Amino acid sequence: MTPAQIAWEKLGRHPLAMLALVVLFLLYGGALFADVLAPYGMDSEVRAHSYHPPTRLHWVDAEGGVKPLPFIYAHESRLNELYQRVWREDRTRAFPLRFWVRGDSYKFLGLIPFDRHLVGVDKPARLYILGADSRGRDLLSRILFGARISLSVGLLGILISFSLGSVVGGISGYFGGWVDNLLMRLAEMIMMIPGFYLMLTLRAAFPANLSGFHAYLLIVVILSFIGWASLARIIRGMALAIRTRDYCLAARALGVSHLAIVIRHIIPNTFSYLIVAATLAVPGYILGEATLSFLGLGIQDPQASWGNLLSEAMAIAQIRFHPWILWPGVFIFVSVMAFNLVGDGLRDALDPRSE
After folding, report:
1. Can you list the alpha helix ranges (DSSP code H) found in 33-86?
2. pTM of the full predicted structure?
């Protein structure tokens, strides 16, 4: 068996890691196909449905008959004596759940004009599986669209920071001397500053009214800038040991360039560590984006990310009367836990000493 097959077999004996892989597959699949899976478009709103509670699905109608497909009742609202909006079901108007329905138009995978959605109900009813936000927008739809930003920030940030950290650490450990001292002192300067405050400082250096795309790129760059230094120190220590091995000495004797040795021999021999470290580091990037967006320094409304969706839960009163606005936090928690469990499983699977 190849090392990859052995590692996969070991990972298969880690049930929590496999379950976490399935969860991540579903989360990323939901983000990729959000246009189809979401009942409504990201910006579709009905202001009169502000903070609409989650819609209950029913199988048994008012007369006690069982329906073959679930349905919902229309909702009516009124203001109570405290001027709070109270919703109740109108049992005289039922709307069956329909599949593959026409709705808000979009471009499937950004290319093909399309208007089909996996699930929906006939107008004038609206389906709020996880409730609605302050502007009457379906929370489930915005969570699915927000996953595109929140989950991709981690992958793109890891790709940049780990590439930079691997190269800097490999060069530092391979050459040693003044090169090592210069690069490691630079890394230590970045590591000395608490990551949270460095993140806020870097964000404050740019305009607050950036477009959604530019804010996204800025968040990726900021998180990557913060994350490469600690990795570079670890790779540097590994490179110090790898450079004295026979294949590195042989390559040097054959006249192979220093850069080629770093790229072909030093860095590839750190891949097993990098895979585990990347998996365990992704949650930090997800939380970093969520923190910036939660504080209003990242992705801004009407764009959606889990962080700015959760910002509506800043006030305790909102959580008390509209607890469903905490759903984005649940998705953040689940994704972070899933990555950590996968990282633990990969660490055991790639450890040659584990049984």
Report:
1. 34-37
2. 0.86
Contacts of 169 (CB under 8 A, 6+ apart): 231, 232, 233, 234, 235, 236, 238, 239
Q: How far apart are CA 321 and CA 316, in angstroms?
A: 9
Q: Could you read off the pLDDT of 289-315 as tens digits, one per residue?
A: 888 888 777 788 888 888 888 888 877
CA distance 125 to 138: 12
Which architecture, in CATH terms, is 3-31+143-349? Orthogonal Bundle (1.10)
pLDDT exceeds 80 at position 351: no
Nearest in space to 278 (alpha carbons), one of 129, 162, 160 = 162
Q: What is the DSSP letter of 45?
A: B
For the chain, domain boundaries: 3-31+143-349, 45-134
Q: Which helix (H) or strand (E) segment is 14 a member of?
A: none
Rounded to whole angstroms, the Cα distance separating 206 from 23 reads 36
* 40-63 burial code (b ≥16 CB/10 A, e <16): bbbebbbeebbbbbbbeebeeeee
- Paired tokens of 337: 């836990």
Query: What's the Cα-to-Cα distance from 37 to each of 73, 99, 134, 137, 303, rounded to whole Å?
Result: 22, 10, 22, 15, 18
